[in-house]
Amino acid sequence: MESRARFRFLGRLKPLPAAAKSGAVEYLFYGSPAIKDSIEALGVPHTEVDLIIVDGRSVDLSYRLQDSDRIDIFPFGCSPSIEPLQHLSPPLQADPSFVLDVHLGKLARRLRMLGFDCRYRNDYSDPQLIELALDEGRIILTRDRGVLKHSRVRQGYLIGSSRAEEQVREVLVRYRLHGQIRALRRCPQCNGLLEAVEKEKVLHRLQPKTALYYDSFQRCRDCDQLYWQGTHYEKIGRWVQQLLNESATRG
Ligand SMILES: [Zn+2]
Predict the structure, then answer these.
(1) Could you tell me the distance, in angstroms and rounded to a whole number, from the CA of residue 226 to the centre of ligand 1?
(2) Measured in angstroms, how far is the CA atom of residue 125 from the centroid of ligand 1?
(3) Domain range list for the chain
(4) Per-residue pLDDT averaged across 147-169, rounded?
(5) HSE on the CB side for 189, CA within 13 Å?
(6) What pLDDT is stored for residue 102 in this prediction?
(7) Within 10 A of 149 (CB to CB), how many other CB atoms are there?
(8) Span from the CA of 249 to the centroid of ligand 1 (angstroms)
(9) Which of 119, 116, 114 is CA-nearest to residue 142?
(10) What pLDDT is stored for residue 53 in this prediction?
(11) What is the pLDDT of residue 19?
(12) How are strands ordered across the β-sheet holding 156-158?
């Protein structure tokens, strides 16, 4: 016999357009499917879900749907006044690391500029992304709902914006990273850590004007790229200040 449940997706959660014509989604099903599968059938990966409230009770992803269930799905950062709450998102990490899908190269560079550990290549397959995430305890950042639906994926975030600047803001807010920004400690090209290097040691690699105007240099430990405090540094400094100001305004 056919049963039906009513889902509401709150906050930033967006079911697929076909399912989202109104605020609530009527979901038809047979038997008693796991709620994880039903949520994902509506287009929302399980990694996006922090709370599942069924008729006023907080349940986890193994809950099985029953006829007439009324279900509210919340993303991380919401706290409905229900007790007890079973939060499904893993706790925030003090020093999180990430692996990014092939479309997020610009985001990877920007997060590295802010000091965050980001694995990225423009040819990672989905299975590689997932393996890296599991092996190294990394959070998957992606614009692809499919990757995050794999049941092995524990930590991931579906990037909403298509603009890199906005994507940075999303990640900082989701993982509460503003206090962990350490600009200019990591190579934007390769993710390697930067170390100070004496000017004399790299003099032979510098253009005459660079040698004339700059005295402070850093080198990437992994790819040997040189960095110095030119106008680029000032630009990054202003950008970091802007991100911190926005965070302070948001409270
Ligand atoms: Zn490098």
Answers:
(1) 9
(2) 23
(3) 2-74, 97-183, 194-228
(4) 96
(5) 10
(6) 96
(7) 20
(8) 34
(9) 119
(10) 98
(11) 59
(12) 117-120, 97-100, 139-142, 156-158
- Ligand 1 geometric centre to CA of 161 (Å): 27
pLDDT at residue 249 greater than cutoff 70: yes
Number of H helices, E strands in the chain: 8, 12
Ligand 1 midpoint to CA 219 (Å): 8
Give the Å distance between the CA of 194 and the centre of ligand 1: 8
Distance 62 CA to ligand 1 centre (A): 43
User: What is d(CA 224, CA 200) in angstroms, rounded to the nearest whole number?
Assistant: 16
Q: Ligand 1 center to residue 239 CA distance, Å?
A: 21
pLDDT of residue 22: 62
The topology under which CATH files domain 2-74 is Ubiquitin-like (UB roll) (3.10.20)
**3-49: pLDDT as tens digits:** 999 999 999 898 876 655 567 899 999 999 999 999 999 999 999 99
Q: Is 233 exposed, middle or buried (0-12, 13-18, 19+ CB in 10 A)?
A: middle
Q: Report the 3 state secondary structure along 104-167.
A: CHHHHHHHHHCCCEEEECCCCCHHHHHHHHHHHCCEEEECCHHHHHCCCCCCEEECCCCCHHHH
Query: In which band, very low, low, confident or very high, does the pLDDT at 196 lie, cut at 50, 70 and 90?
Result: very high
Calculate how far, in angstroms, residue 195's C-alpha sits from the geometric centre of ligand 1.
11
Pairing mode, if any, of strands 139-142 and 156-158?
parallel
Instruction: Calculate how far, in angstroms, residue 120's C-alpha sits from the geometric centre of ligand 1.
Output: 13
pTM above 0.90, yes or no: yes
* Residue pLDDT, tens place only, 36-48: 999 999 999 999 9
Instruction: Return mean pLDDT, the chain.
Output: 93
